[in-house]
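== Sequence entry ==
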Amino acid sequence: MAVSIYDEIADLFMASLAGEVSGVTREQFIDRVRKQWPTEKIAREQFDILQKRAAVDVAKAERDAAARGQKIVGIGYPVKK
């Protein structure tokens, strides 16, 4: 059986720090994504857009760090409790 885009997105999210601290189950996360993007076609298109934006943001951050003689080894962000 083919893996759905919802499964792909959920796998990526649940393996992330955000997924670990979110407190949602995989099933709850998939339900939320399905509500936001109700068809596989829409979900694939939107996920592709997000991946492209992320790649642009990472490339910019790497360029900015290199300009300061630094290297990015990870991305951190605050977690609200």
